Structures are given as C-alpha cells and as structure tokens.
Amino acid sequence: MKKTVPFWIVIAACAVALVASSLLLVDYVRPAPVFCGAEGGCGLVKRTVFAYPLGIPTPLIGIGGFLGIGLAQLLPGRRARLAQAALGGVAGIVAAGLLLVQARMKTVCPFCFAADLSALVLLGLSVARVLRGWDPPLARRQLAGGVGALLVAVVAPVVVGMSKKAIPAEVPPVIADEMRKTPRGQVTVVDFVDFECPFCRMTHADFGPILEQNKGKVRVARKHVPLRMHAHAMDAARAACCGEKLGKADEIAEALFTAPVAELTPEGCEALAVKHGLDLARFKDCVKDPEIDARIHADGETFRAAHGHGLPTIFIEGVKLEGAQEREVLQSALDGAIRAL
User: How far is CA 163 from CA 166, 168, 185, in A?
Assistant: First the structure.
C-alpha cells in the first residue's frame, strides 16, 4: 500500500471526528442548542456524568485528542508513530465506552457516534502505522493539505455554529424551523391570522405600525388560519397567499386587514389586487391554483403543531402571544427580542 493512502485515511478520519466534536462543542457552550435537539440523543448524553469530566466539555477534550492524532500523523519517525498509537488507544477506549453508554441508554447522539466511530478507525490505523512503520509523505503540498484539513474541520463548524441562532427547547419545532430561516440580525415574527377575525384586525391595527417602524429588523412569516365561522376568511386567505406569491405580500395583507369585512368577497379581493398593482388575470389564476389551498391547509397544520388555540396567535422569537394584545405588550415583546439579537 502506498504511504499516501493510510496518510489520507487518517487525516479524513480525524477531520470527520473534529467536525463532529466541534459541532457538539458549539451546543455545549451556547445557552440553547444549535445543531442538536435538547430532547434528542445529543441532549440526553449531554446530561450524563460523562459530558463534563473535571468540568471540561467532552467535545473539547475530543478536539484536543483528534488534533493530536492528526498532528502526529504529519510527523515522521518512531516517536511520532508511538505518540499517535498512544493517543489512538486512549481515544478508542473512550469511544467504545461512550458507545456502550448510548447503547444502554437506548439512544444515539449522531455527532457523538460519528466521533466515536472515527476514533475506533483511528485506533486501528495508528496501531497499523506502528507495526508497518508508515510515515507521512514528505511532499510539502500533501503536508500543507493535511494541516489545512485539520484546521478547517475545527474552525468552520465553530464559526458556523456561533453565527446561527440558538433556539430554546420549549419553542415548538415548527416555530423553530421558521426562526432558522430568518437571517442573523433579524427577529422572527410568526403571525397566525384570519382576516375576518375582529381580534386579528384589532391586533394588526396596533402591531402593523410597530412592524413598519422596525422594517429591516423583522421577518414576518404570516400563516393563514381561516375559521369556518367567518364567511369571507377563506377568500381573503387565498388573496393574501396570491399577494405573497405575486410579490405584494405586505400591501395585500394590509389591504385585507383594513378593508370592510363585507368587501372580502372574491370580487372585493380582486378589486384590492388590481388597486395594488397586480395583474387581474394572473391573480385569478393564482386563486384557483390547488397549491394555494394546500398552502392554507399546511398553515393550519402548523398552527395545530404550534399548540395554537385561538386567534390571533403571534410568536415573537419563540415567545407566544395568544389573543388580542395591547400595543404596549406587542411593543415590549418586539423591543426585547431586538435587544437580544
């Protein structure tokens, strides 16, 4: 076997283990998880006594060990081979123990599993290196590539992880998904509405100007929950979805909220669309599109998954406000979310 083959296999295994360990480290040091669910395998393992030996996060220890193995692989000579084997031995024993812990807990932390499996592979390769006397190729390009791969495997996941939003565990998953779609530096507002609902209209009258004042700091995800008791709610929801699809989401939503309820008929919605610059033929085709009703149905499912009970229901960065709200409450909730960015 050419010397370059085991060299790159070791570097690749170290890189996989470093990426997994770095992702775990982000979740260990952030106040709320970024990559792992708090109630998933990662969260369960994090609550065991094996997560912080001597007060040090296990992923940080893993990063140190895997970097050590990778750097030893880059060096020639008997001492480097023995050092790699010793580090590989420790890593393999710890990995086997942690895999056993997960098996007994009947759970799997995917990042832990990737790191632990890589550690077992590295144990075998490190022992083989000692037995066969493998040393790295001395070409500068290959050695530089190995160093670069190890550094990127540590730095890139940390940079990405520290730039992502940490979402508290109590936030419903469907709301957390919306929050992840929001660019960093903006607040997520998920607004479940029925345009005929009097309380939705009252709340929007107060909340709309607040959102306008903070334009650029807020991403609004409007979800439609037209209630059967409201005769025109479904027509208005279709009009709002088409306004969004045709590039006039805010304008059409504002018009639907402020128009007299009696005008939220199909004909009234068409008049609003034309008034705000939409092509009537395209708007009519859009309203008839089965995908629009499917979208509205999906919004209703999201409402139920978010444990919604009444309208309006608004989530501001995961904080739930249900029912008609005073302007001061809405202002305070949004200001607090913006300050926390």
Answer: 9, 16, 10
Domains along the sequence of the chain with CATH = 4-163 (1.20.1440), 173-339 (3.40.30.10)
* Spatial distance between the Cα atoms of 217 and 182, rounded to a whole number of angstroms: 10
Q: Which two tokens stand for residue 156?
A: 């890139």
Per-residue DSSP letter, 232: T
d(CA 101, CA 47): 12
Q: What is the pLDDT of residues 228-247, one digit of tens each?
A: 999 999 999 999 999 999 99
Token pair listed for 198: 């009097």
The radius of gyration of the chain from alpha carbons, rounded to an integer in Å, stands at: 28
The token pair that represents 192 in the structure block:
């479940």
- Over the stretch 105-144, which tens digit does the pLDDT of each residue have? 888 888 999 999 999 999 999 999 999 988 887 778 888 9
Distance CA 298, CA 291 (A): 10
